[in-house]
Amino acid sequence: MDVRTGYKTVRRAVVTQMGNVEFHFDFGSPNAYLSHLVIPAIERRTGARFTYVPVLLGGVFKLTGNRSPAESLAGIRNKPEYQRLETARFIARHGITRFAANPYFPVNTLAAMRGAVAATRLGVFDRYVDEVYRHMWAEPKKLDDAMCCGRRWPSRAWTPGSFLRSPRHRR
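Above: the chain sequence. Below: its structure as tokens.
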């Protein structure tokens, strides 16, 4: 039985055990972006708190002997179509309106992920994550293009590229 739709006593017992949850993410993952959008509602509903942990998903794939879904599903009949259907269902179920496939996908996210580490040190992590995700999956840009992370972003007090030039980031 799915605990989320089960008995209230079971649901309450499971939820109260979830105080903190680590959310391992890479800006290059559309599923991580979609999860990022629904995490606030999960936190409000359950009282759980999510701690974001930047990871390099490509490194995780390599370390575990796996490949990205874009590679592993290539040539398998109906799998990519089913994955797109499931994504569309998730988007509809959660009322997500800010999602677009990135035409530059796959994007090398190493610089953006380094920026996430710098943003933590600078105390602007939440805003940085929101902005990078927006420019990766809501208003898609080629985030592995050095020009993109500086001049092409809308005028703001900071850009992802400014973190990479930050003396505090280069330690």
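The longest strand covers residues 20-25.
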